[in-house]
Amino acid sequence: MSPWTRSCQSLGISHWKKCPWMVSSTFLAQMSPSSWTQQSSASFSSSPLVHTPERSSRKLPGPVQASSQRSQILSSCGCLDTGALSRSPSRPRREAGIRPQAPGRGVPELAEAGGSSSDELRPNGKGLPVDQSSWGQNKPENSLSRQNKSKSEISNMVRSSTITVSDKAHILSMQKFGLRDTIVKSHLIQKEEDYTYIQNFRFFVGTYNVNGQSPKECLRPWLSHDTQAPDVYCVGFQELDLSKEAFFFHDTPKEEEWFKAVSEGLHPDAKYAKVKLIRLVGIMLLLYVKQEHAAYISEVEAETVGTGIMGRMGNKGGVAIRFRFHNTSICVVNSHLAAHTEEYERRNQDYKDICSRMQFCQVDPSLPPLTISKHDVILWLGDLNYRIEDPDVEKVKKLIEEKAFQTLYAYDQLRAQVAAKAVFEGFSEGELTFQPTYKYDTGSDDWDTSEKCRAPAWCDRVLWKGKNITQLSYQSHMALKTSDHKPVSSVFDIGVRVINEELYRKTLEEIVRSLDKMENANIPSVSLSKREFCFQNVKYMHLQVESFTIRNGQVPCQFEFISKPNEESYCKQWLRASPSRGFLLPDSSVEIELELFVNKTTATKLNSGEDKIEDILVLHLDRGKDYFLSVSGNYMPSCFGSPIHTLCYMKEPILDLPLETIRELTLMRLQTEDNGSQLEKPMDIPKELWILVDYLYRNAIQQEDLFQQPGLRSEFDHIRDCLDTGTIDNLSASNHSVAEALLLFLESLPEPVICFSAYRNCLECSGNLTASKQVITTLPACHRNVFTYLMAFLQELLKNSAKNHLDDNILASIFGSLLLRNPAGHQKLEMAEKKKAQEFVHQFLTHPEPLSLLSYSA
C-alpha cells in the first residue's frame, strides 16, 4: 500500500458514494470670438504647464492666445484636447511642456507627475488625477541624456504619469460635467466629418518575444529599418523575464534594460517622446511619438488583463494603451496567449477574456469605461501562439525552404480560427511573406534542435481594425538572434482625423443655436422594452445575461441607475447593468445588458439563504421620472463558496440536500463541531476536495506546468456540476482544468484553510518550523486535516518534479496566498505579507514529516 493510499485511508476517504441643459448667455459670451482675444493673454501665459524657454518673458502672439483660450473653453465640454488648435499641423513648433532632447539618444517624457501606476493617480481607480504638485516644474534645456542618468532617475522616468501635457491643461480648465456639455459633445461627435479632415501618419508596430533574455544587440535593424522615420512607435515584448520573482512579485530589472534598448534603437532622423510604458509580468508595451506630435496626444490610459491560472496570473494575458491622437481614438494591445499546439481553444478564450475585461476610464467620470472595441483604430500585436497544424515537422520545414508560404498558411491555426469567426472578427492581417518566427536555437537562424524539436510557427503577429489604414510592410527581422523568436514589424499609414479650426467653430455655433431654441419646460421620457427579468438556475461562476432597450422620446436625456434609500449601490453585488448610465439624443435608443454573476464574494450568502436572487433596479432620468425594474431568479447551491466544516457535514451531494439543511449547515458556527453537536460525526475533509486532489494524484502527478496553466471555462462548469451533483464517474476534464478548479475551490472558501484568527501568528512564526507546526495544531480539526492533506499532496508532486517541472517555491507562492488570507479582506496581500505567507507554506514542503506529527481527530 502506497503512502498516499495510507494517508487517504487515515482521513476516512477511501471511498465515497454517490440638470438644466439650456445654454446660458455666459456660455455664449465665452464662445464669442471677441472674448478669446480679450481674455487669452493672462490665462494662457500664467499657466504653469506651458514651457517655452526661448520666449518665456514675452507676450504670446494673438492667434496663439486666441486658440489657447478657445481650446480651454471647448475642453470644458469634453470636446477637444487643449493645445490641439494652437498651431497648424503643417507648421509644427516645439511643443509646450516637452523636455527638449539632450545630445545622445535620450527619450523625453510627455509628463512626469510621479507615481508608478494609473491607480495612484486616480482615487479609487476612477476619475482624474488630483496631485498637481509637480505640474509647474519646468524642465531644463540641457537635461541629461538617458545614458548618463542614474538607475533611480531612469526608474522615475519609466513610471511616468498617464496624463500628458495637454491633458493637464484640460484638467485645469475643465468645468463640472453636466447635461448641457454632454449634449454639445454628442452633437459634435455626430457632426465630426463636418469639421475634420483626414491626414496620414506613419505608425511602426513591432512585437518581440525575447525569451527572458537581456538585450545583447542593437535593435535598429528592427526598429529603424525604414528610410522614413515613423510618427508613432508601438513596441511590444513578451517573456521579458521568465524568473519566478517576476512571475510572483512582478519586479524585474529587464524592464529598464529593454526600455533603454528601444529608446536607443528608435529612428535616428527624428526625436521622440515616450507617452507610456505598461507591463504585466513579462508582457510590456511602449508608446512613443515624434516630439512635434506630442501636444496632440490626449486621454492616455493603460490597463492590463491577466489570463493565466485562475484568470489572474500575468504569465499570459494582455496589456493595452489607449489614447486620442488629434480627433481619432486609438487602442494598442499587446498580448501573449496560451502556448502549445493543441491549445487553440484556450488561446481563443484568452483573446475573448482580454476583450471583455480590458476597460479604460473616461475623462468624464459619469461615462462608462471604454472597451477595446470602442476605438476608431485598434492595433493588436504580440505572441498570439497560434501554430501550424500539420504534424509533419519535416514537411513544414521543406515548405519554408521552398518559400511556399501561402501553401503553409493554409495550415495556420489563426487563419482557421478567424475564418470560423472564433477570434479577431473584423480584424485584418497582411500577407505572410516571411518565414515562421518560432522556434529557433538562440543565437542562430537554425530551427529548434532541442529534445522537443518544436515545429516552426507564425506565433508573432500584427493585426488591425478600423478605417483609413494602409499597411506598407509586414516582415520579420532575421538579423536579431537574441531569442528563440524573431521580431516582427508592420508599418502603417493611418488616416487620423485632424480638426479644421474654422469649420469646428461654425459647427459648434450651430449646435449652440439649436440648443438655445429648445424649451426648458420639456420633460424627458423614455420607453423600456422590458421591466421584469427572471434568471433561472443560476450557477456559481456562470454568467447569465438579460437585455432590454431604452428608447428616448423628443427631449435629450441623461439616464442612470441609482441607489435605493439606505443602500450603497444601485444593485446587489451579483448583478451589474452595462452601461449603468448614459445619454440619449432625441429618438435614439440604447441596449442595456443585465449581467448576473455569482462569485466567491456572493456565493456563501446565497447558499445560506441570507441572500436571494431578488432585486429592484431604479432607472432615473435627469429632470424626469424613475422607472422600476424587477429582477428575480433561483440560485443552485454549490460546494464553491461553502465553508469547510459545512461540507464535512454534507455526506450527500449539496444539490441532493433540502435547502433548509443547506441553510442550517452553512450558518452553523465553526466551533459547533467541537462542542458536542447532536449532528452525525463529520467527514475529516470535504469529499469535494478529495475528488479533485485524488483526480490530480491519479492523472496529473507528472503533468508539466500544473497549477501554472489555466483550464477551459466550459470544463470548469462541468467539474462544478459533477461535484455539486455527485456524478463523479462522469468527471472528464483536462488536468489543467481540474487543477484550476482546485485553486478556485480553495479561493472560494469563506474561511480559508488557515483560519483568519491564526493569520497573524502564521506570519510571525514563518521561518520557525516548530512554531509553525504549533499554530497548525490550534486550527479546528477539519481545517487542520485539509492543511495536512494538501501538504501531503504537494509533497507528492515535488517527488515528480523532474517530470512536472514544479519546485517548492512555485507551489509555496501559489498556495500561500490561498491558504493564508488577510482577515481585513484585502484583494491582494502586501508584498511583505505575501512573501511571509509563501515562506510559511514553504517550510512544510521542504521539511516533509510523517502525518502523525500534525495530530488531528479522525
Question: Overview of this structure, please?
Answer:
With 858 residues, the chain is α+β, with helices and mostly antiparallel strands. The protein has 29 helices and 22 strands. The chain has a six-stranded mixed beta sheet. Helix 3 (33-45) packs across helix 4, helix 26 (781-799) packs across helix 29 (831-846) and helix 28 (808-819) crosses helix 29. The longest helix has 19 residues, at 781-799. The two termini are 20 Å apart.
Q: Which helices and strands, and how do they pair?
A:
Layout (H helix, E strand, L loop, with lengths): L2 H8 L14 H7 L1 H13 L16 H14 L42 H4 L29 H8 L6 H9 L5 H12 L1 H4 E14 L10 H4 L8 E7 L5 H6 L4 H12 L6 E9 L2 E8 L6 E10 L10 E9 L2 E9 L7 H14 L1 E2 L9 E2 L5 E7 L9 H9 L3 H5 L3 H7 L40 E7 L2 E8 L11 E12 L1 H16 L9 E3 L3 E7 L5 E9 L4 E6 L12 E4 L2 E4 L4 E8 L6 H6 L5 E8 L4 E10 L8 H6 L9 H9 L19 H13 L13 H13 L9 H14 L10 H7 L3 H9 L3 H19 L1 H4 L3 H12 L11 H16 L12
Parallel strand pairs: 1-2, 7-10, 15-22
Antiparallel strand pairs: 1-13, 2-4, 3-4, 5-6, 6-7, 8-9, 10-11, 12-13, 14-16, 16-20, 17-19, 17-21, 18-20, 21-22
GO cellular component, one term: phagocytic vesicle membrane
GO molecular function: inositol-1,4,5-trisphosphate 5-phosphatase activity; phosphatidylinositol-4,5-bisphosphate 5-phosphatase activity
Pfam family, one: Exo_endo_phos2
